[in-house]
Amino acid sequence: MPSLQPIARSANLARRAGVALASVGVTLYFCLLVIGRAAAGRLRREHVDGYTRAWSAALLRLVRMRMTVQGRCPDFNDGRRYLILCTHSSHYDIPASFVAMPGSIRMLAKSELYRIPFLGRAMRAAEFPSVARHDSQQARRDLERARQMMESGIVLWAAPEGTRSADGRLQPFKKGCFHLALDTGAVIVPVAIRGIQHVLPARTWRLNLDQPMQLAIGAAIDASRYDRDSLGTLMADTRQSMQARLQDAEAVAPTEGELEEMVENCAR
Question: Does 8 map to a domain?
Fold first, then answer.
């Protein structure tokens, strides 16, 4: 198993600035592609799938992330509703998930992101649902919209912790995404990402290059087998699976070519 110990290769100020500017540029480029296609009435779901994976792969290359994957995804095309619940200790959790997993994945995002110029408009056009964290009535409407999107075939990605962990350890879970799973009878796919907190530690501007990280996919949990009274059990079972993935994972690191193939396979 490749070591997941952090590599002491902190980027200097010039490299950090370069990665930041390039990341903004790549993000803006794909936002404009989405907005332009949407304005012309030519934006299809498969276009968004391809754009999100190309954008994600570009971001991972900029920090030379050494990503490995353990476990297998269920068949997202079997007619069930799916909800990916992932640990959250880095801004790179989302692009790593997009690259490693197939399907029409969309992030359940906090509403504040939609205020960002170009990004907010592109996310709405690309079917990324929002959730208001500080308005309970709006949050319920947002979750209803998310339910409708899941029923149309979208696989939702959410972070039950709600905010990034500074040390990679699991934080307390929020209940919202578990209510959504129960409401839709969704299949929860627990995902844990080890080591990714070292790339860009939470609440810092310290950027570390060539970091090893591992995305581990746990066994699916069928929320339709739980009821409202067993919400706590569903949360505990999901947490236990994610915790186990954090503590025990192994895989073989892909080469640059294999990373390209991973993106292509996900797009099929």
Answer: no
Residues paired with residue 10 on neighbouring β-strands, in sequence order = 208
Q: Is residue 75 part of a domain?
A: yes
Q: Which residues are CB-neighbours of 107 under 8 A, at least 6 positions away?
A: 94, 128, 156, 157, 158
The answer as to whether 54 is a domain residue is yes
**N-term to C-term CA, the chain:** 29
CATH of residue 187's domain is: 3.40.1130
Give the count of domains, the chain: 1
pTM of the model: 0.86
pLDDT tens digits, the chain, 268 residues: what are they?
Answer: 445 655 546 778 888 899 999 999 999 999 999 999 999 999 999 999 999 999 999 999 999 999 999 998 998 988 899 999 999 999 999 999 999 999 999 998 888 888 999 999 999 999 998 877 677 777 778 888 888 899 899 999 999 998 888 888 899 999 988 999 999 999 999 999 999 999 988 777 788 899 999 999 999 999 999 999 999 999 999 999 999 999 864 443 444 454 555 555 544 5
Q: Give the angle 172-131-69 at the CA atoms, nearest 5°.
A: 60
Q: How far is CA 170 from CA 5, 14, 58, 106, 221, in A?
A: 18, 33, 27, 22, 19
Domain residues for 199?
Answer: 13-267
User: Is residue 211 in a domain?
Assistant: yes
